[in-house]
Amino acid sequence: MTATEPRVLTGLAASPGLAVGPARRMVPPPELPATEPAVDDAAAELERATKALDEVAESLEATAAQASGEAAGVLAAQAMMARDPSLRASVQRAVDAGRAAPWAVRIAVGQAQEMMRAAGGYLAERASDLEDLANRTIAKLLGVAMPGLPQPEDPDEAYVLFAGDLAPADTATLPVDKVLAIVTERGGPTGHSAIIARAAGIPAVVSCPGAADVADGETVIVRVQVGETAEVVRHPSEDEVQAAEQQRADLAARLAGSSGPGSTADGHRVQLLANVGSVDNLEAISGDSDAEGVGLFRTEVLFLDRAAAPTVDEQRDAYRKLLAALPGRDVVIRTLDAGSDKPLAFVQLGDEPNPALGVRGYRTASVQPQLLTDQLTAIASAAAETAANVRVMAPMISTPEEAAAFVEQARSHGLPSVGVMIEVPAAALRIDEIADVVDFVSIGTNDLAQYTFAADRQLGDVAHLLDPWQPGLLQLIARVAEALRRRDKPVSLCGEAAADPLLAPVLAGFGFTSLSMAPTAIPAVRAALRELTLEQCRERAERVLAASSPAEARAAAKS
To answer: Which residues contact 456 (CB under 8 A, 6 or more apart)?
Structure first.
């Protein structure tokens, strides 16, 4: 460390917590040799490239089969990228132009990444997934070590993982008992690495300038508070290490006593629910989180990496397994949220210039209505056979007409509690009309922020606009909550903002009846709610809404 290098690095808070330990760096990606060999047999070279892509796809599919939740879905989508005909056609064009297989793969992936980044939104987030795909394929073609997780000399060593960014295959296979924290140079707080880190309860800092300068083996302190600080302290003194260890112990002791239903200090109920990606995540709900149910069940994992849609029977079996495990508890099932970064092989959407603004979520039903019909049939059948309190909601609703159409269709299948997700500013602006036709509403703050501020969720340069404490976003959120409160209907928040302990009392003051988050975030949110009465929460909410900047809003929430 030089005298000019900062001792404290700051980045974006992705997953809360505190950790102390040695830094360990990822195995670097392969580098193309300085000299490219001449290609004598283009057909043979194309066969090499195709075989390598096939092997990488098979490896990702095998890892996906062993993973669960968000990781399984992301890996399945990445495997689909490896098999994408358009990517392979680009490789063939490069080979036909005389490029050797490794260079052809690099060229083809680079072209695909340019298109994805230009599209923005969710598709831009997946550009880094393609980078990992290229690195793995090139490593196979060159016969060198596959990039990935570090292998410390001591296999029992716990460490802080440093990386440029984490690929899906790496996050899916993280040794959670060894990784104390994650620090990445790139990425955003709503990317797949951040989501998986939160699900595993691992502190994470993303988009952290200077992270590349941290040496392997260097001791660091990682301190992350969601919605607030995210810092990495280099070369801490012994006193700093001891203080951090004590702080971590105190926090663990505070949260250990956090259990039972969510409520304010005077007993006002705020239901604390879990976001779940698959049935395999259920053990997290019954563990230390003590979640009261599921506030967001993402059904798209059932549909990814398939040549054809799952049958009604297949879907019913999956939903029944989920619901049977939660008798008497609320379970909110989100219908298929496909399109954009979650393409389906059996849904042809054509060439969309900007998929994040195209046919995704509920809009998919306009292209292939049978998907939604079959899904509602399966959900209703599973609900009838179990004792959970089932609610169903549609993603990406934009107008009251869409909301009314979905409610009518869901109720025609015998589903009694039907709601929608508010992720589009137009829906938030017309919430009074939407609230009149639905039974409940859930806000997805990740997308609502992205569309409100026209800011790519994965782009670090605009991350400040995606801050959940942005006054414009908070005003939209409060507007939605107030509309539902006047009608005495449930209103939930299931975006990552729900996991912020400082923001949770403000949301209670707005009138939210439930908050849904990664299970590992629930204890801290529960403890924060129990420190204030409902009236104090409302007073904080009023002060926060009067703020003119995120910093002022945070300060108002602390006073």
So the answer is: 120, 121, 124, 125, 450, 462
Q: How would residue 213 be classed by pLDDT, with cut points 50, 70 and 90? A: very high
Residues contacting residue 109 through CB under 8 Å, at least 6 positions apart? 87, 130, 131, 133, 134
Beta carbons of 371 and 361 less than 8 angstroms apart: no
Strand order in the sheet with 204-206: 8-10, 230-234, 219-224, 17-25, 159-163, 179-184, 204-206, 12-15
Dihedral over Cα of 352, 358, 361, 365: its sign: negative
Per-residue pLDDT band for 175 (boundaries 50, 70, 90) equals: confident
Please list the active-site residues.
192, 494
Residue 31 φ then ψ, to 5°: -110, 140
Burial bucket for residue 49 (CB in 10 Å: 0-12, 13-18, 19+): buried
Instruction: Give the list of residues 6+ apart from residue 297 with CB closer than 8 angstroms, or none.
Output: 276, 322, 331, 332, 333, 334
Q: List the structure tokens of 37.
A: 């060999």
- d(CA 509, CA 529) in angstroms, rounded, equals 10
Token digits of residue 182:
């994650």
Beta bridge partners of residue 8, listed in sequence order: 233
- Whose structure tokens read 């924060």? 528
Spatial distance between the Cα atoms of 439 and 393, rounded to a whole number of angstroms: 10
329, HSE (Cβ side, Cα atoms, 13 Å)? 23
Take residue 335 and report the two structure tokens written for it.
Answer: 């219908």
In this structure, are residues 494 and 419 in contact, taking their beta carbons and an 8 Å threshold? no
Among the ranges given (34-43, 52-61, 76-85, 364-373), the one the predictor scored with the smallest mean pLDDT: 76-85
Query: How does strand 12-15 pair with strand 204-206?
Result: antiparallel
Q: Is the pLDDT of residue 359 over 80?
A: yes
Looking at the predicted structure, is the pLDDT value of residue 546 above 90? yes
Q: Are 9 and 232 in contact (CB under 8 A)?
A: yes
Q: Are 509 and 270 in contact (CB under 8 A)?
A: no
381 phi, psi to nearest 5 deg: -65, -45
* Pair of tokens at residue 244: 């951090």
d(CA 517, CA 16): 13
pLDDT at 121 over 60: no
113 Cβ contact partners less than 8 Å away, ≥ 6 residues apart: 127, 130, 131
0.90 cut: is pTM over it?
A: no
Q: Which domains does the chain have, with CATH numbers?
A: 8-27+148-251 (3.50.30.10), 42-142 (1.10.274.10), 257-558 (3.20.20.60)
Looking up tokens 């490239």, which residue turns up?
49
Decide if pLDDT at 338 tops 90: no
Q: Which long-range contacts (CB under 8 A, 24 or more apart) does 405-409 make?
A: 406/362, 407/437, 407/438, 407/439, 409/372, 409/373, 409/376
Distance CA 378, CA 381 (A): 5
